[in-house]
Design goal:
Elements lengths: L2 H13 L7 H19 L3 H14 L4 H13 L3 H8 L7 H17 L2 E5 L3 E6 L6 H20 L7 E6 L2 H7 L4 H7 L3 E4 L2 E5 L10 H17 L6 H10 L13 H12 L19 H22 L2 H11 L4 H9 L3 H13 L24 H13 L2 H15 L3 H14 L5 H13 L3 H14 L4 H13 L3 H14 L4 H13 L3 H14 L1
Helix pairs in contact: 1-2, 2-3, 2-4, 3-4, 4-5, 5-6, 6-8, 7-10, 10-11, 11-13, 12-13, 13-16, 14-15, 17-18, 18-19, 19-20, 20-21, 20-22, 21-22, 22-23, 23-24, 24-25
The structure holds zinc ion (ZN).
Zinc ion binds next to helix 10 and helix 11.
């Protein structure tokens, strides 16, 4: 039983003072209310709902039952209804007050949301530019529904609720994450309270690989449901990361930066221990540790699958749902205990010869400015960080000034110097130089730089956009479309990419695609 459940049961006990029932009836009531909470804790929301409805009929005046009902409604996404019920519940207890705050914040943050449905999901977001996300989100999640459902042997009967928050501030208010957690760890989405929640890529300067992120969160949803919420955190994260790219037919989940950090960690015997990953990877001390933790657990799952086949994942989840303790479930599934498994994994990894690329850096999420005082400073700090050091930063600034005054060859010289001075393989600096080469129509130099940078940072939207632009200028529309399509999926808020795609479809005579792109573009105009 988890900590939260224990707390609720304690409150349930004290709240029973409000109940009109005594003696045996009260003991019965307590047992049944407890069952309701247990079902919620196990992600069996429909059953919890059924139990609660029955209890409401039998004990219409019980504060306990109403508090349970408020929880059920909250988990069903009925925040207004949950709030109405909570208004009638006495809030002298900490847990009640805490829950009331959560419901109140959620209700406030989602009050202006509109809804759109697909076959298996409901999307809730603010009407406006974020509308552009929905067709892409449907693509990622409906594919995930099929692909991941098959792997994990689970297909939710009810539509899964997906909420898209416009930026990190409301997201922090409705989740257990603080603003600091979000910025430090780069956590921009989570799966909790029977739903998936995500920060819109529109609030980030360059977007992020949010379609993979949605699929990742959906894996958490499936695992929580299928295992009755009994999977340990490391296994949850391992499976979610391992399967993150599967919806788009890609088996490789390991990014170059993850591989580099894991290789360094293994070489220096610096690992994040599985127990230190609790309560959430978002709470680790920095973004490097977060990447290391992901790399560890994803390769553990990869190793498990290599040894036992992909069915091992569904098997583990099923036996956890039966209440089998994790160690035993693992022993049954892979034939060894957790310690032995980790030792074998490490041996396996030592033999794998991972690639390290010196200079690779975890790129921090860069949120758009909110024009608040302090934001300018943090933008400056971010620019400095992205350049790698002060000298590289100063040379870049000089390059920027020269470029803005049309001194292109001089700007190229400064950008080159900046890249030499920067110790990191900064995709920002490489893009500045590559973009300037493009102004000179020096396609060869530009393409070489961009391709190199893309190998290091495959999800960097600016690189993809520049490559699209390069082929667009060369009138190689097929190649341009491919890169622009990748770019638009990471950052659907860049108008240039939409307008280029529209032009490409027009040039190729693909009227339907042109119209579809036009609709997408209209959302962000
Ligand atoms: Zn996760």
């Amino acid at each position: 039983m988890n900590r939260l459940l224990k707390q609720i049961l304690m409150v349930g006990g004290t709240l029973a003072l409000l109940s009109a029932f005594h003696g045996f009836a009260r003991a019965d009531l307590q047992a049944e209310v407890t069952e309701g909470y247990l079902l919620i804790d196990q992600w069996r929301f429909e059953e919890a709902d059924a139990v609660t409805q029955k209890l409401l009929k039998r004990y219409p005046n019980s504060g306990d039952v109403h508090f349970l009902n408020a929880r059920v409604e909250f988990y069903k996404g009925n925040y207004e209804k949950a709030w109405k019920i909570l208004e009638t519940v006495d809030d002298q207890y900490h847990t009640v007050r805490e829950f009331k705050t959560l419901v109140s914040n959620t209700r406030e943050a989602t009050s202006v949301f509109v809804t759109q449905e697909s076959e298996h999901f409901t999307f809730h977001y603010i009407d406006g530019p974020d509308q552009v996300l929905i067709p892409y989100a449907i693509e990622a999640l409906e594919k995930s529904y099929q692909v991941l459902g098959k792997i994990l042997g689970y297909f939710p009967k009810q539509k899964v609720r997906v909420e898209i928050y416009p930026d990190r501030i409301p997201f922090a208010r409705i989740s257990p994450l603080t603003l600091k957690d979000i910025v430090t760890s780069g956590t921009v989405a989570l799966c909790k309270y029977n739903r998936i929640m995500m920060i819109s890529p529109g609030s980030l300067v360059r977007g992020y690989n949010w379609m993979d992120t949605l699929s990742h969160e959906y894996t958490h949803y499936l695992l929580s449901s299928k295992s009755y919420n009994n999977a340990p955190l490391w296994l949850h994260e391992g499976i979610a990361k391992y399967l993150e790219t599967r919806w788009r037919q890609e088996a490789d989940y390991m990014t170059p930066i993850m591989e580099t950090i894991l290789a360094d960690g293994l070489a220096n015997d610096y690992m994040v221990a599985l127990e230190d990953m609790m309560p959430s990877l978002a709470k680790l001390k920095n973004a490097e540790d977060v990447q290391l933790a992901y790399a560890e657990v994803a390769t553990m799952v990869d190793y498990m699958v290599q040894q036992n086949g992909e069915t091992v994942l569904a098997q583990l989840a099923a036996s956890l749902a039966e209440g089998t303790p994790f160690e035993m479930a693992l022993e049954d599934a892979v034939g060894k205990g957790l310690n032995e498994f980790q030792i074998d994994w490490k041996k396996h990894m030592d033999g794998r010869q991972l690639k390290t690329i010196p200079g690779l850096t975890v790129l921090k999420f860069r949120f758009k400015n909110h024009r608040s005082p302090g934001e300018n400073d943090s933008a400056k700090e971010a620019a400095l960080q992205e350049a790698g050091n002060q000298r590289a930063h100063d040379l870049t600034m000089l390059g920027d000034i020269l470029k803005s005054r049309q001194y292109i060859p001089a700007a190229i010289i400064e950008y080159k110097k900046a890249i030499d001075a920067s110790k990191m393989l900064s995709p920002i600096l490489n893009n500045k130089l590559a973009g300037t080469y493009l102004l000179q129509k020096d396609y060869t130099q530009s393409e070489a730089l961009l391709r190199k940078s893309l190998n290091y940072y495959p999800q960097f939207a600016t690189t993809l956009t520049h490559l699209g632009e390069l082929f667009y200028m060369k009138k190689d529309y097929a190649a341009a479309e491919e890169f622009f399509q990748k770019a638009v999926r990471i950052n659907p808020f860049n108008p240039l990419v939409h307008s280029r795609l529209i032009n490409i479809y027009a040039a190729l005579g693909q009227t339907k695609k042109k119209e579809q792109q036009g609709v997408l573009y209209s959302y962000i105009k």
